[in-house]
Each structure stands twice: as C-alpha cells, then as structure tokens.
C-alpha cells in the first residue's frame, strides 16, 4: 500500500516514535494549529501508545499500563491524526520522501525522527536469555518479571540512573539485588567521588550488593545459581538473572541507512532548530545530537519538541542552546540530586562540602572563583536543598556571604530562598519550560487554584519534581493579588486541620457525625477528612480506636490494629518499653511466634516484630501476648512508636544518668498519644549518644546536671537533626516541657505533618517555640499540661479493650461468611523463617483460558 503525501492543500507530516518526546511533539503541533496545514501520521514500534517512562518502576509495584499512558487517547482521535502502533518503520526513502513499513509505504512532506535510544549491551560471551535482559520498556519489565519467577538473586550491570532504578525493580520482585559497575563509583556522570561513596553506603545499608570497578568477561553456568559472572578482576558473582543498564545509545539505524549526517559520538546531527542535514527531516530527543552532545533527560527532549513544532508551523522560537542536565531523583528510596557544574570543572571553581559519615549524607556546593555565583551542587541523602540551589544556579542569584550556609543542616543554614526572590524568568518546571512569569500570566488569565494552573501551563505534569515549588509560587502569587488561598482540609470541611482541632477541643465534639453536622458539608466525608478527624478525636479524648464512632474513620491498619503487609497478612508488634524485656517476656514472644509460624525480627527501634499473621489469628495472638504482660505497640497508628535507650548509668561506665528508667517513664506516659504523624523518642545516658537521640522527634541526652532536651528531628527519607531546646533539666521539668511541646504540636500541626516539618513551618522558628513552651508567651502552658494529663489518664491498651468486646472481635474474619484462612496467602522458607511467596506470573495462554 502506498499513501501519497500532499492531498489538496494539506501536507503530510510523519512522526517516527511515540515515546514521551514524540508524544509531546504531537501535542505541541496540535496546540499550534498544525492540523490546518498537515495530516499527521505517528508511527510507534510498541503496541501501547506513549506512556510515562520516568516512573517506569511503578509498573512492577502494581501500577497498570493503562494508568501510565500520557495524556488522553482522544489526542490521537483528532481528525487529521493517525496513530500506527506496533508498526516499526523499516526504511526512509529520502529521494521519494517515503517511509517504508511492513504494511506499506507512506509519503511525507516533513518528517520528525523521535526514535529515542536503545540500551547498550556489551558484547559478553554467554549473555543470552535471562542473562541478557534490559530495562527500557514495559515489555522489558514483563520479561524481567517472568525471569524473576522462582529466582533468588538478580544482578544489574550498570550503576547509573537506570541501573539503580533496575536494582530497585529487582528488590520489588523479592530478589536479592546486586549492582555491578565498571567505574570506581556509582552514578559517575552525576556524582563526585565522595557523593558516590555516600550513595554506595546508603544503598548497601538497604541490602543491595555493590561491586565497583568490575568489567564482566563472560557469563557461564553457575553452581548455586543459574549463571556465573566472571570479571577481569575480583571474585566471580553468581545470579539467576542479569539486567543490563550500561548506558544508552541513540537509535539512529534509520538515519544512518538514509544517509543523514551523524555526530562523531552518535546521534543525528541537528542545528539550533532541530533540523537534520536534510531540510525536510527534524530530529528530537535522545536520537538527536546538538553540537555533538546527546541529552538523555526528558526535559531537553520536550524543549526540542517545542522548537521543532514551532518551526514546522512557521512560528518563531528560541533556538536550542543546550540544556540544563540537573536531576532530582529518589533511587532505592535514597534522595540524589545533581545540579549544574556538579564536578567543579569550571576553571577556578571552589567547593564547599558537608559530610555526614554516620548517616551516609553528603552535600557539595560549587561556586565561582570570586564566590559571586553558584555553579553547581551534589546532594546525597536529602533533596530538600535542591529547589533552592537550582534557582541560585539557573538565575544567577548571588549566594549569601558564607555560601556554605546553603548546604549546612537546616538548623544552621541560611534561610531558604523565598519564591518572592525568584525573577519572572526563573524556571519552575524544566520538563515543560514553565517560568514563574508564565505562572503569573496564567493566574492573571483567570486561574485561581493549583489545579487550574497545572492544567493551563502543564507545570508539574512531567517528572513531577517541581510540584512543591509550583505550589509555593501559586500560593504566593494568589496572596499577592489579595486572593484568599483555599487551605480547606477537603470539600467537606472549609477549615484547616489546626482549625478543626480547635473546634473539636472547644466544642467538646467526640464524633465525626457531630463535627460534620455542625461545621461540615455533606453526609459521608471522604478519605482525606475521615482519618484526619479520627486522629484529632483520638488526640483530644484518647478513646479506644475500636469505638464504633471511630472505626469508620480509620484506614485498614487502624481498623485491625495491625500493619497490613504486601501479601495480605499482618504484623504483630508488642510494646517493649525502652527496649527492656525479661527472659520470660522473650520466651513468651518466641512461643507465640513458633505456635503461629510468624517471621520475627528485631527492629532499629528496639522492638520485636512478628510478621505473617492472618486476620482471623490476630485476636488469639494478642490474647496470649497480653496474658504474658505485653501491650500494643501502636505500630499501626500515627502515635507514639518507640522510646529507644542505651543501658545508661546502670551498666555503662560512661553513663551519667539512668537512661533506661527515664525511657520507661517517657514511654509509659506517652504510649497512648495519637498525633498528626508518628512520634519517635530516644534517651541516651551520656553524650556518646548510643541511642541516637538527635535524630528523633524527642531526644533526651543525660548530663551530669540532669537532661538536655532535643526536639523535632527525624530519620527516614528526609533526615533532620533535632535541635537543642533546653539544658540541664531535672526529671519533672523534662516531662513538663515534653508535655507542653507535644500538645502544642498536636494542636497546631497540619495533617500528616512530622514534627520536623512543623518546626520548619513555624514563623519565628525555634526561638518562637521556646517562647511558647518555656516562657509561656501565649499563656497556654497550664492548659497544654492539663490536656496531656487527660490523655495519659485515659490510656488503655487498644487490643485489651477489643478482646473484651465480642462485637469488636467480629470484624477479625478473612471472609464474612466463612471462618477459613485465606487460601491465596502462601509462604516459602528463607533462612529458617517464613516469608511471602513471590507473586505468581500467569502465562498469557492460561489467563485467556
């Protein structure tokens, strides 16, 4: 079949490639009115229309392919647009201006090549089948999932961005994951030596093996695993499957066969307006090379797509002049950021470094020789600095007198750059090239909320990394115009969480229905307001979470007072105050775990967690634990979790106070406290800090004169050091101050807001908090203490309460009308303990049958 190009007054425009960049080009063409002059034919090799490759790993975590599709399918239903899926283009006939497919030839007047790139697989003997997998498309991920069935270990060759994403994918498939990298550090393009070392430490702490400076020689049959990888240096490594992510190469097969000029190091050579050596052919994205460079991020590809679309529609556009390759990522749960001249390659550049060896954190700031410009940065472990540093680099904003303050811990750092300091030209969204000025224009054009600004500008609809900054800019611009920024909790309550707390407390409201009737709208509530109000009610009145008026407000974990795990079973977490436990207690936990076949683990919070309990088993398990003297550990709730302690002066020759006794007092006092987010405490018996108190919401460190109190720290994905709040406190003063601070946090924090984020949001910062809590500047302290005492006095173990109420026990059944256990829950044995069996892959033929 041959299709001619020009039909009447319309020309034919062919786009080869339906990836993210090709799709964006079609969007831009339609938006610019291209259908008035072109019929557009889009050819894609895959059977699915364009999808989000940036979040590819989510597919293995349960996200379905349809939800990853970009835009609406209606885009390709416009009259004049034809999408040809599963149709590889075999050849470009430049002489006759035709493309050749297996289904026939298609003539073109203009052609856009958006063929992207392909994974590079080194020529290694023995690499085939499950030892030659790649990580690029949804089909590739299906092949990895199939190869993982019945496997125990997987190896990724390549320690760059995609390699670490692939390693995360293997972990999500319950495989022991290893990364093999030829270079002497991970992410060698983005990170310097120390940044790579910090990233390695964090990734290894997650159980991923890292093997650097390894060149794979060949792959042979293994002895304990399916394959054996041999290296030029170092011991061999055995594995069941191998995923290659050793870099990408521009997909230029069509261009080469067609005789287009290629760049020296690969890629289709283009000019500043994305034209190739043939004036009728454009190239965009990873297949294109500008000034000899290929850009492997989506934002430069989108920029090229906009430029090519403008040129095809005879519109003026800023010429392509290179691209900012800054990246903000979360790899295996670890924050990684690289901005501008991250390696300090600019002549005369100077660097400031902050190194946290204990926490495997690293930050590097690169400034010009005269100290007047920020040139680049490297971040490992905490990307909260990223947006601010990016704006300094992109907009030439002069750094503070001490540039190092930009990367110091939050308590010591210079104030964050406010959005009002950003010029109108500041780029907020790199993917769609949306500036602060464009957001202003959208608001002036009638956009009155964040959703409408997103819809108008497409900001934050690419990789999503700018969402936080976009929200700040929108709210700032709306406020500057006198528009009240709507901070309602949800459509049912036109109040913030703080305002609802005050309403509940002052009005003595004890049920969701009362609050909805008196201060809300509608009759049912939603998934936002119900758990938020449930948390407020629990914080105020400390009623059992299983009370009938609270149960409908809770998520699964609170409803069943246990954390649901990935295979549908639950964890059982008895409280072990301060980590102190008797031999009889240990024996009781061991007996329960053995009787019910539970997986047991000692956690970093000095508890013993039991995993694998089915829903109907929970009451029986807790009956035995409570009989042995244990209480619920509240691991399922936004509440007090643990109070970690060292052994203190009782045993340790360095201890100056009895840290175990104080940890016991603190844990027993606050163990029933519900709050906007989980709370973690620690007490150290001396300044050697074995309990790691300075990374907790409430940290207590002994001195010879009493206790030093540290507040508002946390670990997790955004670590923050706690700040010194008060010194040399006696026991009574310490408890009194903690009472006040926690109740003030509960009263004023937003929903799901950690104490660290709450502290950063307070106007006046730590000094203001000291005035309120230590100096009683608001006259609230007596009230806060009384409210905390009410919570303490009303404490009861939620599981003990539930076990004494037959009505509450009725919900602990896997099936409403059947007492059998769940037949779909399967276990396998590993290291002498049960763990969830890998998800079964259903062959297509079986699924159809």
UniProtKB/TrEMBL annotation:
SUPFAM superfamilies: FAD/NAD(P)-binding domain, Nitrite and sulphite reductase 4Fe-4S domain-like, Nitrite/Sulfite reductase N-terminal domain-like. Pathway: Nitrogen metabolism; nitrate reduction (assimilation). InterPro entries: BFD-like_2Fe2S-bd_dom, BFD-like_2Fe2S-bd_dom_sf, FAD/NAD-bd_sf, FAD/NAD-binding_dom, FAD/NAD-linked_Rdtase_dimer_sf, NasD-like, NiRdtase/SiRdtase_haem-b_fer, Nit/Sulf_reduc_fer-like_dom_sf. Its EC number is 1.7.1.4. It comes from Achromobacter agilis. Residues 565-627 form the Nitrite/Sulfite reductase ferredoxin-like domain. Keywords: 2Fe-2S, 4Fe-4S, FAD, Flavoprotein, Heme, Iron, Iron-sulfur, Metal-binding, Nitrate assimilation, Oxidoreductase. Residues 326-396 form the NADH-rubredoxin oxidoreductase C-terminal domain. NCBIfam families: nitri_red_nirB, PRK14989.1. The keyword 4Fe-4S applies. It holds the Pfam family Rubredoxin_C. Residues 428-475 form the BFD-like [2Fe-2S]-binding domain. It is an enzyme of class 1 (oxidoreductase). GO terms for biological process: nitrate assimilation. Siroheme binds at residue 690. Signal peptide: none annotated. This is Nitrite reductase [NAD(P)H]. It comes from the Bacteria. Residues 637-761 form the Nitrite/sulphite reductase 4Fe-4S domain. [4Fe-4S] cluster binds at residues 646, 652, 686, 690. Gene3D superfamilies: 3.30.390.30, BFD-like [2Fe-2S]-binding domain, FAD/NAD(P)-binding domain, Sulfite Reductase Hemoprotein, domain 1. Belongs to the nitrite and sulfite reductase 4Fe-4S domain family. GO terms for molecular function: 2 iron, 2 sulfur cluster binding; 4 iron, 4 sulfur cluster binding; flavin adenine dinucleotide binding; heme binding; metal ion binding; NADP binding; nitrite reductase [NAD(P)H] activity.
